[in-house]
Amino acid sequence: MRGQFSLLGEKRFGPLFGTQFLGAFNDNLYKNALVVLLTFQSAQWTTLPVELLGNLAAGLFILPFFLFSATAGQLADKYDKAWLARLSKILEILIMGVAAAGFWLHSLAWLLAALFLLGLQSTLFGPVKYAILPQHLREEELIGGNALIEAGTFVSILVGTLAGGLFAGTVSEPWWIAVGGLVVAVLGYVYSRGIPAAPAPVPALRINWNPLSETWRSIAFARGDRLVFLAIVAISWFWLYGALFLAQFPAYTKTVLGGGEATVTLLLAIFTVGIGAGSLLCERLSGRHLEIGLVPLGSIGLTLFGVDLYFASPVGLVGTTAHELLALLSLPAIWRVLFDLLMLGVFGGFFIVPLYALVQTRCEPSHRARIIAANNILNALFMVVGALGAAAALGAGLSIPALFAVAALGNVVVAAYIYGRLPEFLRHFGAWAKRMCGAAK
Predict the structure, then answer these.
(1) Closest CA to 348 of 356, 336, 359
(2) CA atoms lying within 13 Å on the CB side of residue 142
(3) How far apart are CA 422 and CA 295, in angstroms?
(4) pLDDT band at residue 2, thresholds of 50, 70 and 90?
(5) Spatial CA neighbour of 45 closest among 106, 114, 97, 101
(6) DSSP 192-222
(7) Average per-residue pLDDT in the chain?
(8) Can you give the pLDDT at residue 51?
(9) Of 64, 273, 283, 371, which residue is the least packed, with the fewest Cβ within 10 Å?
(10) Is 290 helix (H, G, I), strand (E, B) or coil?
(11) CB-side exposure of 377: number of CA atoms within 13 Å?
C-alpha cells in the first residue's frame, strides 16, 4: 500500500503542492523582509513608529481575507480551479512588480500596497487549494493529501520567514527582495501549469460582488450542517491558538529564556517540525480514512503540553545580554520547553488534519469552495481576536507563560463546547483508542 508521500510524484497532487508551498513561502519572504527592513531602517522610509509599522503590515496582509474570501469562494465554485490557480500565480508575478516599483521609487505606500495585494492573492487561492483536493484525490487519500498540505504550509512559512529576514539583512539594495519574490512567483506559476483541470461545480453561478452579504451567505451555507460548522469553529480556534503561541516566541525568548535570534528560530523550527510530524502521522493513525477520533486526542495534547509549558518555563535566566544558544541547550529546563513545543505541534497536527478532511467530505460539491471561504473568514477573525486578547492580557500584567496556560485552559472550554454539541467526536475517539489498544496487544 503506497503512502502519502507517493502523492507528491503524481500530477493530480504534486503541482498543487508545489504551487501552495511556493506561494506561502513567497508571502512570508516578502512580509518578513519588509517588516525587518522597516524595523531597522524605518527612518529612511517613514516617520511612523516602528511598533505601528509591524502591526500595520500584519493587518494589511490579513484584511483581504475579511473583504474578499466570500468572492473568492464564489469564483472557485463557478470556474475551473486549476485555471484560477494559474490566474492567482500570474497576479503574484504582477504584485512582485508593484513591490519592485516600491523599492525603486522608495515608496512605503507602494510596498504596503504590494503586501495588501499578496493578501488578496492568497485569499483568491485559499478556497481553490482545499476545494480541489476532493476532486483529484480518492477518499482514502484525503487525509494524506491534507496532511502534506498542512505540513508543507507550516514548513514554507518558517523557511520563508527566515529567508525574508536573511534577505533584508544581507542584500545591498532592497529591490533584490522583489527580484527574489519574482523568481519564486514565476516558479510557482510553472508548477501551477501542471495542475489538472478541476471543472466548476456551478458554472452558471451568478457572482454577488457585495462582500458583506456574500460573507453572511457563505457562513449560512456552513451553518447548514452542524458538524461542518463546528468543525470550522474548531479549525478557527486552532489558528487562534497556534498564532497566539507563535506571536509570543520572540518576547518569550527574550524575557523568559534570555536568548537571542537563534533561539527564536529554534523555537519556530521545533513547533513547525511538530506540526509537520503530527500532520503526517495522521494517515497512519487513521488507517488512511477520515478518523474524527483523532480530534479529541489532539485537544488533549494541546491542553496538556500548553499547561506544562507554563510550569516548564524557567525563572531567573534573563541577564544583561542574550545567552548563546548552545549555552541554553546545556540546561535541562530548555529541553523540557522544546519538548512541550514539539508535542504542541504534533497534537496540533492530529487536531487540524481530520477537521479539514471532514469539511471537504461533508460539504455539498456545489458550494464547497464557498464553505471553505467561510472557514477562511472565521480563521482570520479568530486570529485577530486572539491577537487583541493576548495584547490586552499582556498589557494588564499577565506573564507570557501564564498566557500560554490561559490559552491551554481555554482549549478545554472550546473542546467541551464542541464535543458537548457533537458527542460523536468522543464516541469515535473511544472506538479509535480501543482499536489502538487491541492492535498493541
Answers:
(1) 356
(2) 22
(3) 12
(4) low
(5) 106
(6) HTTSPP---S-TTPPP---HHHHHHHHHHHH
(7) 90
(8) 55
(9) 273
(10) coil
(11) 25
Q: Cell numbers at residue 136, please?
A: 483529484
39: nearest Cα among 30, 28, 52, 26: 52
Residue 58, all three cell numbers = 500584519
Per-residue model confidence (pLDDT) at position 4: 82
Cα dihedral sign for 282, 284, 285, 287? Answer: positive
Give the separation between CA 280 and CA 275, rounded to whole angstroms: 9
How would you class 3 by CB atoms within 10 Å of its CB: exposed for 0-12, middle for 13-18, buried for 19 or more? exposed
* pLDDT band at residue 1 under the 50/70/90 scheme: very low
pLDDT, tens digit (0-9, with 9 covering 90-100), for 384-413: 899 889 888 988 999 999 999 999 999 999
For residues 342-363, give the mean pLDDT. Answer: 94
